[in-house]
Amino acid sequence: MDNKIKRLKEKGIVLTIQRMAVLDMLHNCSNHPTVEEIHKKLLKKYPTLSLATVYNTLEMLKQAGEIQELNIGKEKRFESLLESHHHFYCLVCERIIDLEIACPTFKAGEIDGHKIESMQAIFYGTCADCREKGKDNA
Question: How many CB atoms lie within 10 A of CB 59?
């Protein structure tokens, strides 16, 4: 988290209380929340925080390269983990789970003249929790 703060300051970004709250929440969250989920959770501590401020903060953090926006499922979701990794999307409960598996074909560089900087795969299916509860998507 300290590195993110340092990089943001180096980019001349003012770290308001609201921006720090959003960044801190994402840093300590592993469930890939939506904008509305972030807003709802932060409202408890910051009752005057507007949804527009959350949207603007997420956009600023994304443009600064400090968070990722995920287009998985029905709504955009966000996370602060920047290292290349894959995701699993449960078709039953709609949960997104980080997967730490190596991709044998990915190498930063070029493929057919295209500059490759990162790669992300999304696996779709039924998570272990839903399968255990007998809610398999099959």
Answer: 13
Residue 25 to residues 30, 33, 52, 67, 80: CA-CA distances in angstroms? 10, 10, 17, 12, 9
Tens digit of each residue's pLDDT (9 = 90 or more) over 72-108: 888 899 999 888 788 999 999 999 999 988 776 666 6
Token output for 84: 């290349």
Note the pTM of the prediction, 2 decimals.
0.81
Which three-class secondary structure state does DSSP give residue 66?
A: coil
What confidence score (pLDDT) does residue 63 get?
A: 93
Residue 39 has what pLDDT? 97
User: Is residue 78 within 8 Å of residue 69, measured between CB atoms?
Assistant: yes
Asked if residue 121 lies in contact with residue 115, where contact means CB atoms within 8 angstroms, the answer is: no
Q: Is the pLDDT of residue 136 over 80?
A: no
Strand ranges (E), 51-108: 68-70, 77-79, 86-90, 96-99
H-only helix segments in the chain:
2-10, 17-27, 35-43, 51-63, 128-132
DSSP secondary structure letter of residue 23: H
